[in-house]
Design brief:
Blueprint (H helix, E strand, L loop, with lengths): L5 H6 L3 E2 L7 H6 L7 E6 L6 E4 L9 H35 L9 E3 H8 L3 H9 L6 E3 L2 E5 H6 L3
Antiparallel strand pairs: 1-2, 2-3, 4-6, 5-6
Helix pairs in contact: 4-5
The chain binds zinc ion.
Zinc ion binds next to loops.
């Protein structure tokens, strides 16, 4: 009679209620999803507490699920526009400023750190450890750009 394996309840930490009526329709389609499980959850959209019947339910209602979907789609759009703008700005900078870090073949430690977004000390440590090849020019170290790109190969 019980289609759900005994282990499921304890494994996922779900509450098992014996008195709750089963939904025979869902049970037939997906015996592992339905059952007399009651999982206390918080709606990821409105924040209301609700009881879920499956482990994958995120929202308290269809309305919240639809609204959350809309918000997600909108955010994705905003993100895409943002990335496009950043890319365009980068291209403008590269075009008009040949001295931009991105356009230089040889970099100081500071410029190298700017290029990959780490601290100067990280670059210096990498040079000391021999992980990044640098040539000393007086008291300064110069790093060839391709050496940095090589780190990612
Ligand atoms: Zn909700």
């Amino acid at each position: 009679m019980d289609l759900l394996p005994k282990s499921v309840g304890s494994r996922f930490g779900e509450m098992m209620h014996h008195i709750a009526p089963r939904c025979t329709i869902t049970l037939h389609k997906a015996p592992f999803m339905s059952s007399n499980l009651y999982i206390p959850k918080t709606c990821k959209h409105c924040g209301n507490a609700f009881t879920a019947r499956t482990t994958v339910t995120k929202y308290c209602s269809d309305i919240c699920a639809k609204r959350a979907y809309k918000v997600r789609k909108r955010n994705e759009k905003v993100q895409a526009t943002l990335e496009e703008t950043i890319q365009q700005q980068k291209e403008i900078v590269n075009h008009y400023n040949p001295n931009a870090v991105n356009n230089k073949d040889f970099l100081s430690v500071t410029e190298a750190s700017q290029l990959i977004g780490v601290s100067r000390w990280t670059i210096q440590r990498m040079i000391q450890q021999g992980r990044l090849k640098a040539v000393p020019f007086g008291r300064k170290h110069i790093v060839a750009r391709w050496q940095i790109e090589n780190l990612f190969n």
